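Q: Can I see a sequence and its folded structure?
A: Here is a first one.
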Amino acid sequence: MAVVAPWVQSDGPWDRRQLVVNGPNEIWQGQPMDGSSSHPTVVVVIDPHCGDHRREIIGTSPAWVTMSEANAPVVREIWANTPEVDHLSGVTGFDHVASLSPECRLLDQLDAIDLHHGPYSSRPPYTGLRVVGASVTDEVRAALADLGFAIIGSDAAGFTVARTSKAARMIRE
């Protein structure tokens, strides 16, 4: 049974809540990236129209954001105001290809995200993804499963996936 309270929108900014998945052998907890989390959640903003709202969505979590016309100025402002952060705690921008579906844009970034936040580059590796602006298709579900993730929640804005710390540490070919 899973208890999920990820990224619930309240009257104000997006509210980061703890995710808990109770499995037969492990409890996974993903917490905000404020330096206190040992297994971070990475936010992936595929929505090209997040603009200023993106600040509320990512907070202090490591994030990957499509560099659309609306999102790029906000990302550049964050880069200018927080030069001391790195790829494990800051914002990474990626090319926005408008001709691709949101799900294809997500699929195009998954390997790079896993390279930068997975077992090759991060100790401990990330165990959660919060995707904003894409849906779960069969192809997305399969690609995430290849990385050890399972869907644990979805809402109008996107979806959340998690994997065990053991799955996160696996080196993939």
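Q: Show me another, different protein.
A: A second, unrelated one:
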Amino acid sequence: MKKVLFEESQKNVQILAVVPAVITTILFGVLSFLQVLLHKPVGNNPAPDWLLLVFFFGSIIGFIVFSSQKLKTQIREDEITVSFGFFARKKVINISEVKSISIRKYDAIKEFLGWGVRFNLSERCYTVAGSDGIEIELVNGKRILVGTQKPLDADLAILNYLPNKIIA
């Protein structure tokens, strides 16, 4: 493996997603407590105890999985790697496949309808927050945008080590 030029790890901390997940977990926790432990049926037609417990523990597991996801970006002399969470495969891009690389501003909502691993008509995007991204155009015409909270560090690495990949 070659020298690491840029490295970043971003935690997934989207408040708009965390708040509903916490509320859901608390709700199923209270309902489970009332019905299973206090033996007070919830509603006119209560759900079976096992179902409440499945939803409660499922929401806890979902919250843990969601909140522990990280976007990891690494630019090396020979490759760029991007990984996001448990379910997205690690993307490895050989530098020889890169036509151009640059830093650009973007709007996750307008361009990709949110955060995470996203697609639009012309580009794949990996993002958790912010509006700065590393845009990579491949020689095959595909484009990949990787969100970054360190645009200046990424730009410096690109300028110093990959100057032949910069577009004017």
